[in-house]
Amino acid sequence: MVKNEVLALVDKGEMLPLMEEFYTIQGEGFHKGTAAYFIRVGGCDVGCHWCDVKESWNAETHPPTHISAIVDNAAKYSDTIVVTGGEPLTWDMNPLTAALKDKNLQVHIETSGAYPLTGHWDWICLSPKKNKLPEGIIYDKAHELKMIIFNKHDFIFAEEQAAKVNGNCILYLQPEWSVRDKMVPLIVDYVMKNPKWKVSLQTHKYLNIP
Question: What family does this chain come from, according to its entry (predicted)?
């Protein structure tokens, strides 16, 4: 397939820059502790300095892969599929989610919301970033809001974002991994004073799994 044909399929969401795919235990948020198959899509321009998957940023380093192959692999492992990145909403997620739903799979997304929401999702984890704020209706659609806490100022940003989501959205504060020893006590104290929030930890890192 020639390059222009590949790019056209990527633009349509029929091929995606696939960084990796793996079967593991969900480590964060509402579904932590449950088995899920992760599809990590390359490409992100949000640019969080503490990002632990910076190798996902450049989409050109990850091979465009037809969604049929991605879906066939996912269906072998789990009923729950998590699409993450990178920033998956960089790309049109409608074809991928339609194909996954055709297999009767539960489809989740982890996103900063930096691009318009596409796709049909059973669960939306919204994790806004200051560098590039969420767009459009995703605040109304999000099932959980996961705010990463790197410093004390992030609590203010978390409250600003919590004021924008729908009333049923579950609110989580999660320490950024490199400063967890310093931030966990602050988060615990904050949640105890503001019980609308819950604590989220990257439990997969404690379990030493992907």
Answer: Belongs to the radical SAM superfamily. 7-carboxy-7-deazaguanine synthase family.
